[in-house]
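dumping this here before i forget
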Amino acid sequence: MRSTMGWQADGSATLRRVSLERRDLRPDDIAVRVDYCGVCHSDLHAVSAHPGDTSVPLVPGHEFTGLVTEVGPEVTRFGVGDPVAVGNIVDSCGVCAMCRADQENFCHEFPTLTYGGTDRRDGSTTLGGYSREYVVRDHFAYPLPAGLDPAAAAPLLCAGVTVWEPLHTIGVGPGARVAVAGLGGLGHLAVKLAVALGADTTVISRSADKIDDARRLGAHGLIDSTDPGQMAAARDRFDVVIDTISAPHDLGPYLRLVAMDGTLSHLGHLGPVTVQTTDLLVGRKRLSSAGSGGRPATAAMLAFCAERGITADIELLPSARVNEALSRLQRNDVRYRFVLDMSDLS
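structure:
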């Protein structure tokens, strides 16, 4: 086993610095020195829910970048010193219909998650990227394209690909009318990607003071979701609405903004929703969702972002301030993604 340092949940909704063990490299593994790791809302939920049971340890972090430090004997895609990125999936069955369709994110046996998952070979619990080293199958690591800042690129591996998947699959392109509901970690990247794809993009937010940020990101305007007049005026306007709101909410007002034969892609809140059939029926509207991305889609997203110079808007903190980052994220006190500098774990 290999030793490294990381941040582990202790059962009190906080993380503490501990020594972690990583597996010795298998033939198709690479070892990655983790330099930067994004802080995702799912990390916050996982830490808050963790009972502190050390028999099932929790080390969050599933969007990170770094350098390859060692490769297994069967690895040909990477060499020592290569910059790489790793997202929220680190393995899958490889044989089900979804895996054969390059949608490992929908693996019928459920993909192995970067943290809190079960290793498919030895049954151990996967420990995430809030650490100085990660060992991963080479198939689930991605070359980090030149020109992308490694800190600001880290959130692309979760937030970025989560919004890329529906935008790309739905076929958003020049002339499409897109609205992004919620301007947070997911939403600000959805705006950047939709604009880069050529869409006429609008932000929907309950915070009208985000209008300047919306325009800076490339959106043409902002609809205040708390203003009934503005919402009514936007009825049937958009071909696609990307809903990144993380809290439970009524989908009806957002479906009513979708044009005939358009789509509401619901991404931010993973809990139960209730939908009135008439909100779908009137206008033949579609309700969809997406989660993460398969390997080809993730690679395509990184290439597109490198070509267009797209990264996340981040606040970079030393990893020793991880509990501050989680506390501020709970209060939505970030624009728009925290990233941890893991070098203080060396």
